[in-house]
Write a structure and sequence with these properties.
The structure is a homodimer of 349-residue chains.
Chain A (H helix, E strand, L loop, with lengths): L4 H8 L3 H9 L6 H14 L5 H8 L4 E6 L5 H14 L11 E6 L4 H13 L4 E5 L6 H16 L3 E5 L11 E5 L1 H15 L4 E5 L5 H16 L9 E3 L4 H14 L5 E4 L2 H13 L9 E3 L16 E3 L2 H12 L10 E4 L2 E3 L10
Parallel strand pairs in A: 1-2, 1-3, 3-4, 4-5, 5-11, 6-7, 6-8, 8-9
Antiparallel strand pairs in A: 10-12
Helix pairs in contact in A: 1-2, 1-3, 5-12, 6-7, 8-9, 10-11
The first copy, chain A, binds a DNA duplex (30 and 30 nucleotides) through helix 2 and helix 4.
Keywords (chains A, B): DNA-binding, Transcription, Transcription regulation
Organism (chains A, B): Streptomyces minutiscleroticus
Pfam families (chains A, B): LacI, Peripla_BP_3
Chain lengths: 349, 349
DNA sequence: AGCACCGCAGCAAGCGCTTTCTATCCGGAA
DNA sequence: TTCCGGATAGAAAGCGCTTGCTGCGGTGCT
């Protein structure tokens, strides 16, 4: 029914071994033979059996990419960049790699499940993107998995994630969330703000914690008391930003600035502010994080911290494919750039 | 080195066959035996070898999802919904399916390449999302591939795509782009607009053509001449919307409304209008398409056509997993809902 | 008491490919 | 002319798993 290597071999009048070698191009085959084989492949419309090949060669050409939310451009941009780098040449049979994008939805269980599934597929590489969950049991479970993957020859790269334990052999490209958060808040303080609300992401996530720490560091550095009532936790989505803003306003109506965990949350905050009859930045300044494409289209355009998502993703992809040297020590920090735009201004006097 | 089925069998004192059956749960195994095997699996930390299993069983648990642009929430939302449906129960070994999200970038070649790669992996199902490319050679090449996939037992579902030739056996969930486009433009006409600009997507794509046809049908139905100078083609991104708007304004400064190919393009159009000193909708009304999450946060909020992306994706996923009956005839049309918001209003008199 | 059967476990034959090792053919060196 | 080595091609042994078929006790029936 389906065409196999043997069929091609028969038609080209060579042995299956030769066909395999032509297809993998890693063994000398006479040009004339090669051509004959290629013609047979073409005529028969032969497609290699991936699983069989993976089994025999003990490697596959799948690359796993774990993301927290595939509908979020933050991850989409990274995933796209990674994928564009892993497809290229540099491997077996045409060098085609298949990216497996796994949507964990932020759930620790699913993260682990996907890691197992990838291990089961004998993935060539695995790239974990976005913040990690901070839960001792889970962190060590993930570390154990990563170690196992590495043992099985799977290259592991973290993109936008804090480093894993060194013995996992995982390369980490970390975003400087702390530094970005700090610069952002300092920008606001420089503008004269003293009463700033902060809408944080979900607790137990490194990204959330680091950005918040940066914010607090800025406050502390300028002698501003950090009233815990000015911080609200929520999800990384618009709705959450909307509700958190209302809550913040209820608690402290005379806030002059709101810093959001990310751009999406900031957008929700803007909506809540507008619905409350407040002007941006006239009454309240708003700042986001990430600089997703839509942020510049907000009205007013969002002041935020630009993270080089695509660049980081591309680099992670290259490292995963061994087409670029890992950074020394296996860890590199990727900085963010403060983008000052219309949504922040001096507070009303 | 790595643990195999045989190791588990040895430890549980049963034959490999029994272990396999316990793991696949499709053959009667005595409870006590099952338990013993499961314990061994656990103690040995055994992970099934996917490729080997796929080879022997002639099926894999990979599901391919083709998208045009993974960084675009339009696709991200569908992909996420699909993935949440295919992970569930209903299959072998824990029912875990691995979603392979492939980013074609809108390139015909890559689309074909990915289809081949998926065929090579013997994917359990393949779901193609978004509009198709309208190029005779490519369409028939894709149809041929789909046919081959179907022959190999891969279920094929199109989500948000026009139906493929009937002999491909592909189930299609099509968006009513034409109807949505028509209603959107009729809304504008109803408001009193007579000079409407249209920013279309890339040529040779079904989505582009259908939306444009709907627009034109509305114009025709109301006796409005369709001046070709009022239509500009571009990509489905913000930048393109920005530039196209400037071009439209140059050609015809007194347009009173601009209909964009999608929300992202509409956002770019809004930015261009603002930069040109025009008010929305005071001077020019703007409408989008899709109703992506950020559209409601635009200022003013975008009038658009809401496409039930998540619902359609979920349904496609279920159909692909045979957990839902395909629609009669294998084709279903999914309608869009007109969302009238602040970006459209009556034209200045 | 004898027989058919059922429930459960094992045997063994692959699934389609890769790869080591071996065989062959050839040109040129001796 | 004989012999040796390089360049190619083939034979065959798996890779780790699934599954059709066989085998073996024990239950229920007559």
């Amino acid at each position: 029914m389906t065409v196999t290597l043997a069929d091609v071999a028969a038609r080209a009048q060579v042995s299956p071994a030769t066909v395999s070698r032509v297809l993998n191009g890693n063994y000398p085959v006479a040009a004339s033979t090669r051509e004959r084989v290629l013609r047979a492949v073409d005529e028969l419309d032969y497609v290699l059996n991936g699983p069989a090949s993976a089994l025999a060669a003990a490697t596959s050409d799948l690359v796993g990419i774990l993301v927290n939310d595939i509908a979020d451009p933050f991850f989409g941009i990274m995933a796209g960049a990674i994928q564009s780098e892993i497809g290229g040449p540099g491997g077996r049979a045409g060098g085609e790699r298949l990216a497996v994008v796994c949507n964990t939805g932020g759930s620790p269980e699913r993260e682990l499940t996907y890691l197992t599934l990838l291990q089961r597929q004998r993935a060539a590489a695995v790239i974990l993107t976005g913040g990690a969950i901070e839960n001792e049991a889970h962190v060590s479970a993930v570390a154990a998995k990563l170690r196992k993957l590495a043992d099985a020859g799977t290259r592991v790269v973290l993109c936008g994630r804090p480093p894993a334990p060194a013995d996992t052999d995982a390369v980490a490209l970390t975003f400087d969330n702390r530094g970005g958060g700090r610069r952002l808040t300092e920008h606001l303080i420089g503008l004269g703000h003293r009463r700033l609300g902060y809408i944080a992401g979900p607790e137990e996530r490194t990204t959330t914690r680091h950005r918040l720490e940066g914010h607090r560091a800025a406050l502390a550095a300028h002698g501003i008391e950090d009233d815990p009532r000015r911080t609200v936790h929520g999800r990384y989505d618009r709705r959450s930003g909307y509700e958190a803003t209302l809550e913040l306003l209820r608690r402290e109506p005379d806030l002059t600035a709101i810093v959001a965990a990310n751009d999406t949350v900031a957008l929700g905050a803007c909506a809540a502010l507008r619905d409350s009859g407040l002007r941006i930045p006239g009454d309240v300044s708003v700042a986001g994080f990430d600089d997703l494409p839509f942020s510049i289209d907000a009205v007013p355009a969002l002041t935020t911290v630009r993270l080089p998502l695509a660049e980081a993703g591309a680099r992670a992809g290259r490292i995963a494919m061994s087409r670029e040297e890992p950074p020394p020590g296996g860890i590199a920090t990727v900085g963010g750039e403060l983008m000052v735009r219309g949504s922040t201004g001096a507070p009303r006097p």
